[in-house]
Amino acid sequence: MTTPSWDAAYAGNGPPPWDVGRPQPAFIRLAEQGLLAGQVLDAGCGTGEQTLLAASSGADALGVDVSPLALEQARGKAAARGIKARFEVADALSLGDLGMSFDTVIDSGLFHVFDDDNRARYVASLASVLRPGGHLYLMCFSDRQPGALGPRRVSQDELRAAFEVNVIAPIMTEPGGAAWRQTTYYPYLFASVYGRGDALQLSVKSPGYDSEVADNVPYLDIAGVHDEAGRTLTFFAVNRHESEALDLELDLQGFRKARIVDHQVMTNADLDAVNTLSAPLAVAPRKGSGGEVKDEQLTASLPPYSYQMLRVGLG
Fold first, then answer.
1. Same domain, 105 and 217
2. pLDDT over threshold 70, residue 75
3. How high is the pLDDT of residue 164?
4. What is the pLDDT of residues 79-96, one digit of tens each?
5. Is the CB of residue 260 less than 8 Å from the CB of residue 291?
6. Is residue 176 in some structural domain?
7. Of 3, 280, 287, 301, which sits 20 to 30 A from 24 (CA to CA)?
8. Alpha helices, DSSP H, located in 165-287
């Protein structure tokens, strides 16, 4: 999904087929019931009909889209109708970059444009901006729609599966104020976005410790997946040791031309540390360093009390 391709859809003499020049009836009914209120985000707003509907109903409405041309037309509509609404260029797969949270998110015809991989990313992206107790109102092409023209059809089972298998991790808010991601948000996000493919059977050798409930608990806990279509390996690793780093060595056994493409580290010496309004990034992912792949051997140093995500590109 690139900006030029979507701009082209709005550059013709007439509107694109999905732009009917008025709000969709389903969203009009929501507005009439008072359900488009508070802070509302319109994801993939196009020329802004749903955003303007929410704003005219009293909501603090923001519409986002990847097409600057569509947003230019949306701002023109808002000015012509005397409606106060905001429009910003943003990627629906990275809504957390807005640095905002919302009571309600609406999606009129965006969900069905994504393939399976990006669908999971989109759901995680929605979770990053929707406040606890918030609502998502989504309209997409149904599998009951006859014919083959138009976007991908979506069944009710697919919709349920897309949102049931993705956990909306803690996002803390203050009434009428800011929002921030809690520590557990990030592992859920990484697993949702990158934990796709075939699970790897890993033979783990690690020093261990005795706990109150088990003996010889390994300090290292690790899982991995192979995404053949995406040509990647992704590993999620935890070092439970309170004071010592672990030297990780992974034999990639036949995965040639491997290279580390991303290494994210979360760590804090205080296991009770949390993110707060004044310190929202106290425990958050940071770029790891020192990891490498050489002769089909991946090595990295895992800091004490840390969570890691390592992505390895293949070929």
1. no
2. yes
3. 67
4. 999 999 999 999 999 998
5. yes
6. no
7. 3
8. 185-194
Grouping H, G, I as helix, E, B as strand and the rest as coil, residue 69 is helix
User: What distances in angstroms separate CA 26 from CA 29, 70, 142, 283, one per listed residue?
Assistant: 5, 22, 14, 41
Query: How far does the chain reach from its first CA to its final CA, in angstroms?
Result: 24
Same domain, 162 and 288: no
Instruction: Domain of residue 218: give its range.
Output: 198-313
CA neighbours within 13 Å on the CB side: how many for 46?
20
Q: Residue 157 CB: number of other CB atoms within 10 A? A: 9
- Based on the fold, state whether residues 307 and 245 are members of the same structural domain: yes
**Where are the strands (E) in the chain, listed by range?**
39-43, 60-65, 86-89, 102-108, 130-139, 171-173, 179-181, 198-199, 208-209, 217-218, 220-227, 232-239, 246-251, 259-267, 286-287, 292-294, 297-302, 306-313
pTM tops 0.70, yes or no: no
Over the chain, what is the mean pLDDT?
87
164 and 256 inside one domain? no
Token representation of residue 196? 């796709």
Let me know if residue 186 belongs to a domain: no
Structural domains of the chain, count: 2
CA 228, CA 313: separation in Å to the nearest integer?
11
Within 8 A by CB and 6+ apart from 227, the residues are: 194, 196, 197, 198, 233, 234
Check residue 233 and give its pLDDT. Answer: 95
Helix (H, G, I), strand (E, B) or coil at 158: helix
